[in-house]
Amino acid sequence: MAADVIATCVAEKPNCVLGLATGTTPIGLYADLVSDYKAGKISFANVTSFNLDEYVGLAGTHPQSYRYFMNDNLFDHVDIDKARTHVPDGTGDDDQRVSDEYEAAIREAGGVDIQLLGIGPNGHIGFNEPCDEFPVRTHRVELTESTRKANSRLFDSIDEVPHFARTMGIGTIMRARKILLVASGAGKAEIVRKALYGPVTPRVPASILQFHPDVTVVVDAEAGSRLD
Ligand code: F6R
Questions:
Q1: Could you give the number of structural domains in the chain?
Q2: Which of 63, 109, 180, 182 has a CA that sits 20 to 30 A from residue 173's CA?
Q3: Active-site residue 62, yes or no?
Q4: What is the domain extent for residue 110?
């Protein structure tokens, strides 16, 4: 269902700008988009993409980097022009430069048409962790221990999980024209309820989506089990 939302966007606007996410939840979605491409139903030839986030310290060739994930799950299997795929630069120390360049590139591309989001068990979107103020722009963030623990399943040990990431800010995400939030599994049920029906607070970063005018939420039965 979520893949169809993206595929419709690409069919209606072949040069659309996709905001993409990594993580376990969208893996099936990307597989469906690859199948649609192979079946001749969809082309990414004119699509531009911007990913939400990247670990600091991992080059794009590192198997746990988000650039690697995107190549592996989508970009290597469709006709997208890799020069038009963007993932925040995880290398180097110049946070300001990475932030300014990423924000400018999104603006120059005309803004994101549809932003795909997963949700962390703590309510994070991108790597915007619970905090006191909504971060506005692309920035460097220190990952919480709970996020490092949740993501350690993909590394050999928790010690290998980077402590920092670079992520689009909440302002960057909120400027997307449409949002598509996906969640699956019982472990997301309570946070999905809080995000959609609880108070809007930077303590639950995804709750800001209540203020976005065009949000589609796709959940499986377990993740949706606490919703009316
Ligand atoms: C990934 C991202 C994260 C994930 C979230 C859920 O680019 O920005 O916010 O969407 O951590 O991850 P999964 O889908 O693995 O549960």
A1: 1
A2: 63
A3: no
A4: 2-167+178-219
DSSP 8-state symbol, 142: E
| 123 C-beta closer than 6 A to ligand 1 | no
pLDDT value of position 34: 98
Whether ligand 1 lies within 6 angstroms of the CB of 183 is answered as no
- For residue 40, give the amino acid letter: G
Question: What pLDDT is stored for residue 60 in this prediction?
Answer: 93
On whether residue 227 sits in a domain, the answer given is: no
Detail the DSSP E strand segments found in 87-203: 114-117, 139-142, 164-167, 178-183
Is the distance from CB of 216 to CB of 178 less than 8 angstroms? yes
Q: Per the domain annotation, does 7 fall within a domain? A: yes
Ligand 1 lined by 120 (C-beta under 6 Å): yes
Annotated active-site residue in 4, 89, 122, 212: 122
pLDDT, position 228: 83
**What is the CATH classification number for the domain harbouring 103?**
3.40.50.1360
**Residue 103 maps to a domain:** yes
Mutate to test the pocket of ligand 1, among 18, 29, 50, 52 (most ligand atoms within 8 A of CB): 52
The whole-angstrom separation of Cα 225 and Cα 110 is 37
| pLDDT for 180 | 99
